[in-house]
Amino acid sequence: MSNQEFSDLFDTMLNSYANQAQFGEQASKTEIALDEYEKSVFLTHAQDMVVKSFFDRKKNATGDGFDDNTERQIDFSSLIKTADAQRAEDQSNTFDDRGIIYTMPMDILFILNEKLVCTTGNFNRNYVIVPLNYKEYDREMSKPYSQPLKRQAWRLFQNKTCGFDLQSELIPRWNLTEKETISAYKIRYVRRPTPIILVDLPNGMEIDGCSDEMECELNPILHPEIIQRAVELAYASRGRVSRDADNQ
Q: Is 0.85 topped by the overall pTM?
């Protein structure tokens, strides 16, 4: 679907939500007029919601996650990337004495697989990364054997002290780095899709750091659902604005 088709269908569906003005009511309270920038904001937000709902079984009606549906894996295959996380220069923000801080890719949305590659001489060994939440970490540390199992390393997320760069703290087994050299932290992940920008944005306006016209890169079968959600967001936003204006 082209950007012009996105815009036209958005207007058509949005107008179907609008109610005719009642006697004595201002027409401006019932009509919804959005420019191309505002449409782009709602479409991009809706696109993110659709992607998250298809990858999280708790957010969709079928209860299927990404790994439960082969068709879904094909639809979103263009969003799957593989990359090496970069070891952070500043290692002072670790919580665990064994921890190693890595900076994650900026466009990461969901992690599918991850592994730690360690080298001894000419031999490589892969360690499975086990994600922990913070309560699980405390529970593991309260055990007598307070370290990952063999061939495993723990991972917790955190942010930089300044900025919003997502970082992870990897916690290997005791003395692992003395016996082996960590050569790579590899992740396969789902990246965030590029924003939907209907026209080139003027006056330095941006959406997710982009200002040039960009079409939706997802499978066309998902386009109607994106527009439907965008229209619902726009209509809900209009309702909030109207209530705020009435309360003033």
A: no
pLDDT tens digit string along 101-122?
Answer: 999 888 888 888 899 999 888 8
If you compute the radius of gyration of the chain from its CA atoms, what whole number of angstroms results? 24
Write out the two tokens for 160: 């930089």
Which of 168, 175, 123 lies closest to 148, judged by CA?
Answer: 175
Name which of 48, 97, 82 is nearest 185 in CA terms: 82
d(CA 10, CA 82): 34
Beta partners for residue 68, in sequence order: none
DSSP line for 71-122: HHHHHTGGGEEEEEPEEPS--TT-SSTT-EEEEPPTTEEEEEEEEEEEEETT
Instruction: List strands edge to edge, sheet with 181-191.
Output: 80-84, 181-191, 108-120, 123-131, 152-159, 166-171, 100-103, 86-87
